[in-house]
């Protein structure tokens, strides 16, 4: 099970930006084994890494293809320069550097460097050169910080699981001593039915207690519970009002399943997609509607690139809303002539055109890193202890937010 301390550190926007970057990186394919992935734990030895990069540069001279050799050496040089530029100051969880020729045009080189801050602390250093970026360790971290409870029950047994991301883990199972419907000898039908009802009630109390013991430990990471099982028993259980008051409001719905063991949990998981999707939709609608209310009141809201960036710079932003449809890029530049560093925003990834020029001395500047605009905004949000929400265009509210406000808006702390 994922460590709760690790879950606590991951906010929704960070996880969303992380997934967006992985999706982008996964799409890049090299013409040969020329895409480099470098995983750097926070306590990795600097001299060891730099020595390895020097050694890999030397070894790359043996690559037969002149184009591949040039691209690999260019990527290694860019990684070395980047690490020197940041003085090897790594984030507390470590850093992953991806670099290589991502051009889709034959004969054209576009050696680009990306960095990813992992959601969990890196433990092992890794260097990988292939025709695609090595993302497996990061994809394992991509599970969201939200947890949902899955429970299946009838009068015979109950099984409990936790859903984190796209994986569930069975956490417990209990069985009952509720007698069957066939009357035992020596009992009147009325008395036998009463004994069955008492046994059922006692079992339901055990189910409620078990659910409390399992799910309440997750605290505010537990976002909802879905209950499954055959027939109407699951609804009868809820009607008994036995659940802890903190869990009652978390019940998102009930679904019919054929079984109540682990196969029932699997069936419930497969059927729960629409319910879980609707909760995400509701959260998104709430965020956009809160923003719209502030806009209508003419109070604590602003929108537009210039206005939002200014509010961030002044520390006014409480909640930043960013549409997933925005695919702008920030290039971090370094001038080799005057050592000036700066950032430029490009609203079309392939719209940079010619080699950028230094704004101080007009010499050609080197692109040190390409950063997704949402990730760039997230860095600024964290600096002022605000929150950020990525808004999809899959809902009417999300689409309206993108078309009407350009996909950038903020609820402010003060005017």
From TrEMBL:
InterPro entries: eFR1_2_sf (IPR042226), eRF1_1_sf (IPR024049), eRF1_2 (IPR005141), eRF1_3 (IPR005142), eRF1_Pelota-like_N (IPR005140), Peptide_chain-rel_aRF1 (IPR020918), Peptide_chain-rel_eRF1/aRF1 (IPR004403), Ribosomal_eL30-like_sf (IPR029064)
UniProt KW Cell inner membrane keyword: no
Residue ranges of every copy of the STAS domain listed in the record: 1-79
Gene3D superfamilies, per database record: 3.30.1330.30, eRF1 domain 1, eRF1 domain 2
Gene name as annotated: prf1
Assigned GO CC terms: cytoplasm
Function of the molecule: Directs the termination of nascent peptide synthesis (translation) in response to the termination codons UAA, UAG and UGA.
Name the UniProt record assigns to this protein: Peptide chain release factor subunit 1
Record's signal peptide: none
UniProt xrefs under NCBIfam families: aRF1_eRF1 (TIGR03676)
Pfam families according to UniProt: eRF1_1 (PF03463), eRF1_2 (PF03464), eRF1_3 (PF03465)
Intracellular or extracellular location(s): Cytoplasm
GO molecular function annotation: translation release factor activity, codon specific
Keyword Methyltransferase: no
Main subcellular location of this protein, as a coarse class: cytoplasm
Originating species: Candidatus Iainarchaeum sp
Domain of life: Archaea
Annotated SUPFAM superfamilies: L30e-like (SSF55315), N-terminal domain of eukaryotic peptide chain release factor subunit 1, ERF1 (SSF55481), Translational machinery components (SSF53137)
Keywords: Cytoplasm, Protein biosynthesis
Subunit note: Heterodimer of two subunits, one of which binds GTP.
Family membership noted in the UniProt record: Belongs to the eukaryotic release factor 1 family.
């Amino acid at each position: 099970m994922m460590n709760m301390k690790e879950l606590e550190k991951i906010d929704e926007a960070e996880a969303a930006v992380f997934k967006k970057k992985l999706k982008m990186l996964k799409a890049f394919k090299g013409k040969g084994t020329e895409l480099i992935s470098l995983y750097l734990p926070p306590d990795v030895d600097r001299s060891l890494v730099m020595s390895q990069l020097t050694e890999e540069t030397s070894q790359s001279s043996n690559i037969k293809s002149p184009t591949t050799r040039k691209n690999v050496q260019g990527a290694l040089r860019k990684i070395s320069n980047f690490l020197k530029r940041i003085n090897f100051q790594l984030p507390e969880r470590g850093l992953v550097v991806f670099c290589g020729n991502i051009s889709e045009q034959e004969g054209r080189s576009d050696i680009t460097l990306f960095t990813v801050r992992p959601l969990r602390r890196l433990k092992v250093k890794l260097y990988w050169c292939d025709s695609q970026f090595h993302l497996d360790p990061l994809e394992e971290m991509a599970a969201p910080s939200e947890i949902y409870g899955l429970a299946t029950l009838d009068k015979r047994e109950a099984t409990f699981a936790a859903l984190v991301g796209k994986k569930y883990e069975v956490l417990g199972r209990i069985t009952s001593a509720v007698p069957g419907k066939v009357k035992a000898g020596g009992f009147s039908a009325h008395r036998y039915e009463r004994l069955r009802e008492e046994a059922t009630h006692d079992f339901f109390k055990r189910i409620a207690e078990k659910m409390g013991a399992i799910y309440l430990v997750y605290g505010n990471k537990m976002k909802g519970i879905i209950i499954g099982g055959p027939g109407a028993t699951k609804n009868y259980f809820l009607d008994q009002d036995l659940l802890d008051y903190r869990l009652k409001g978390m019940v998102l719905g009930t679904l019919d399943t054929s079984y109540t063991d682990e196969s029932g949990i699997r069936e419930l998981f497969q059927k729960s997609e629409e319910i879980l999707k609707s909760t995400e939709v509701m959260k998104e609608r709430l965020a956009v509607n809160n923003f719209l209310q502030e806009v209508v009141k003419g109070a604590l809201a602003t929108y537009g690139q210039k206005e939002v960036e200014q509010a961030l710079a002044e520390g006014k932003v409480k909640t930043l809303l960013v549409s997933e449809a925005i695919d702008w890029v920030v290039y971090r530049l370094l001038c080799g002539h005057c050592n000036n560093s700066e950032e430029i925003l490009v609203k079309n990834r392939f719209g940079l055109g010619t080699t950028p020029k230094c704004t101080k001395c007009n010499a050609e500047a080197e692109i040190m890193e390409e950063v997704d605009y949402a990730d760039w905004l997230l860095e600024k949000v964290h600096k002022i202890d605000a929150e950020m929400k990525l808004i999809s265009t899959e809902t009417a509210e999300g689409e309206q937010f993108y078309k009407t406000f350009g996909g950038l808006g903020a609820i402010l702390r003060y005017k």
